[in-house]
Fold each of these.
Amino acid sequence: MKVVIVCESMFGNTEALADQVRDGLRDLGVEADVVEVADVQDEDVAGLDLLVIAAPTHALSLSRPTSRADAVSQGADPRRARAGVREWLADIDRYLPATAARPPVAVFDTRVLKTKHWPGSAAGRASRTLRHAGFQVIDRMSFYVEGLTGPLADGEGLRARDWGAELPESLRRYRVRA
């Protein structure tokens, strides 16, 4: 089984969780890698059994260039602002043409803990975008950080690793239904 996690992370929290999801998959012997969204190449997403999208929630949705610029003004590495999941998904046909087999997708986001019950999230927006592009979203999750710049809320790293370890079973159930 081959899985790639396409990750956008401004302060490193979403990336840390993507690494935990990857490790949960690897614990099961799954070939899994994390690729920063700005660095994704065609070969990274070719022939996947599962694509995982990881993004921070900015203003109840996926980041935009302006929200990434705001993150940089709050201390994020400017190199992380060069591309986001929103733009990558808008160009998804370049990487995974509609004429090719599209892998099932799992999506997760990071959100500030105090906004846990607010509507809207990066995972929700990404899921809708993917479904409109013809992908099947098999799972969606939110993980929490204490503040805009982090750190991760207590237990979220372990929860992400456990979610990663559950993804092969989610994929199996999806395939049985399909």
Amino acid sequence: MNGKLLLHICCAPCLMYPYKLLKDEFDVMLGYFYNPNIHPYTEYLKRQNTLKDFSEHSGLKVIYEKEYKMEEFLRSVVFREENRCYYCLSSRLEKTALLARSSKFDYFTTTLLYSKHQKHDFIKETGLNLEKKYGVKFYYSDFRAGYKEGIELSHANNLYRQNYCGCIYSEKERFYK
């Protein structure tokens, strides 16, 4: 497929399988790290630094959002914690679609389509709605087919693998018993 693709990246381990599939499919592919949901900040930095290490070795160029807007994320989900994922997913996809439009990309997509733990159908629907809203095509692929392979690739590349989605609520759900 020809054209320019902006790839939202949640983390390097989730990038492994989609990157393998997409790197030869587009004329230009650029990554975008935008994840204000990740808490604590030290975890955010671990994920960002792991991606930086991988991108340096792979040659993938990545835009790193300069601001860490965790407070904005928390204000947007407080008292709606059970539905926080919908806000989290849609806000990151919308920011990606806006950047894709302003930077004249032909397509945008996300590594969030790789995880079997994400709301896949919602991500797809949101991406297609943003395509209509912003005029940049949403590249859809069910990357979950390579979930196991992606884990193996991340281990082979010695990548830091987090054990919760990212927000303070998912951290509690993972560790609080």
